[in-house]
Write a structure and sequence with these properties.
By secondary structure, the chain is α/β, with parallel strands linked by helices. It has 13 helices and 13 strands. Among the domains are: 47-181, Leucine Dehydrogenase, chain A, domain 1 (Rossmann fold); 201-353, NAD(P)-binding Rossmann-like Domain (Rossmann fold), CATH 3.40.50. Helix 1 runs parallel beside helix 2 and helix 3 (130-143) packs across helix 4. The longest helix is centred in the C-terminal third of the chain and has 26 residues, at 376-401. It is globular. The termini are far apart. Residues 1-7 have low confidence and may be disordered. It binds glutamic acid (GLU). Glutamic acid binds at residues 82-84, 156, 158, 186, 329, 354, 357-358, 361.
């Protein structure tokens, strides 16, 4: 139910693909850009280049199947492209465009020297065997070979891709080059040039940014009630970190359904149960709840760590949390953003909250290039510092300009991108 009257109908969730969400976000940011950079804003509203590839693979039964793949480089003004690769049956070009654009802004917000890129294959990887998944990954890598490289565009994991997939990408690219190129991809296994701390990095950034927000709002993490949507890499790591800090993870939701325990779920036990059964439902010490109850949960903190378009006009008004932390990319529609703002919910936007992943990807890339590896303590300390500094910059700008944190983060990120573009000048 839309309880905010002044929202134009074209902003309703039904009409908003992720790319349109991104364009509305840019629209809202434009008036706040400096007069010097505002005329350059159209640069942000289109990707620099997009590649669509056919990925044919031989299935185990001998038949050939075709999958559609994409790699989009949204902007390269600040450095090589950077952003993950997603395997999902709903992946579209428009979605990958949006994800690549959010990477441009995110990389600028945490000030890592990368542009924004993203890739995806429209496939349900759960329906493929391991050898089929490997063939898909190797063929997709060969098809996007013309775009990627250590100093051109560096992929990483995203939904349904993991260390093993990154190892196959590194190997395929390296075989084509005739030399081992560790820095072409991040999120690799530790034994192949991966970085300590990378696996938990996004969840850690979600946790650190939430702690920073809580402190400024006068809230305690110890004893705080937390609900988390998504129990993949990001949701699981942040649940564990909140529980370790004495917060109570009272509700979890993933593709299998939602569970709750007002006294706090045993996150490790739920993880073990889910690993074994593939579902949250039936986890020890948890009652099953429906989606409506999940969104209505009486919590202090809500972490959205699933996918785009989850918090819409239909459920935003139900959210009781004081802090909404976006572990996923684009979980909140522009219409929902206005409702949350009216209800006084502090939204820590994706381009800040989930930037811990790409920050440690940057560390991994630096370690690979220099062939010198850091300790986990060094990595976590540097990550925490970057997250805290970026959070403070966004928070302070939001206060100074009287805007929400998403707008402040976009102004910070977009101005860095546009300034780089201006200084480089227009070619030719
Ligand atoms: N896929 C992650 C993201 O959305 C990580 C990207 C990276 O490490 O390059 O931020």
């Amino acid at each position: 139910m839309n309880n905010v009257s002044h929202i134009p109908s074209y902003l309703s969730a039904e009409h908003l693909g992720p790319w349109e969400t991104y364009l509305v976000q840019i629209d809202r940011v434009e008036p706040h850009l400096s007069a010097e950079l505002r005329p350059l804003a159209p640069l942000l509203t289109r990707p620099k280049r997009a590649l669509i590839v056919d990925v044919p693979i031989r299935l185990d039964n001998g038949e050939v199947a075709h999958f559609e793949g994409y790699r989009v480089q949204h902007n390269l003004s600040r450095g090589p492209g950077k952003g993950g690769i997603r395997y999902h049956p709903d992946v579209t070009l428009a979605e990958v465009m949006a994800l690549s654009a959010w990477m441009t802004v995110k990389n600028a917000v945490v000030n890592v020297p990368f542009g924004g890129a993203k890739g995806g294959v429209r496939v349900d990887p759960k329906l493929l065997s391991m050898p089929e998944l490997e063939r898909l990954t190797r063929r997709y890598t060969s098809e996007i070979n013309i775009l990627i490289g250590q100093d051109k565009d560096i992929p990483a994991p995203d939904i349904n891709t993991n260390e093993q997939v990154m190892a196959w990408i590194m190997d395929t690219f390296s075989m084509n080059e005739g030399k081992t190129s560790m820095g072409v991809v991040t999120g690799k296994p530790i034994s192949l040039g991966g970085s300590l701390g990378r696996k938990d990095a996004t969840g850690r950034g979600v946790f650190v940014s939430t702690v920073e927000a809580a402190r400024r709002l006068g809230m305690q993490i110890e004893g705080a009630k937390v609900a988390i949507q998504g129990f993949g890499n990001v949701g699981e790591a942040s649940a564990r970190l909140f529980a370790n800090a004495g917060a109570k993870v009272v509700a979890l939701q993933d593709g299998s359904g939602a569970i709750a325990n007002p006294a706090g779920l045993d996150v490790r036990a739920v993880k073990a149960f889910r690993h074994q059964s593939g579902s949250l439902i039936g986890a020890p010490g948890a009652e099953t709840i429906d989606a409506d109850r999940f969104w209505r949960c009486d919590v202090d903190i809500l972490v959205a760590a699933a996918m785009e378009n989850q918090i819409t006009a239909s459920n935003a008004g139900s959210i009781k949390a004081r802090i909404l932390t976006e572990g996923a990319n684009g979980p909140t529609t522009p219409e929902a953003d206005l409702i949350l703002q009216e209800n006084g919910v502090t939204v820590i936007p994706d381009v800040l909250a989930n930037a811990g992943g790409v920050t440690v990807s940057y560390f991994e890339w630096v370690q690979d290039i220099s062939a010198f590896f850091w300790t986990e303590e060094e990595i976590n300390a540097r990550l925490d510092r970057i997250m805290r500094e970026a959070f403070a910059a966004v928070w302070d700008a939001a206060q100074a300009k009287g805007v929400v944190m998403r707008t402040a983060a976009f102004v910070l990120g977009c101005e860095r991108v546009l300034m780089a573009h201006k200084l480089r000048g227009l070619y030719p």
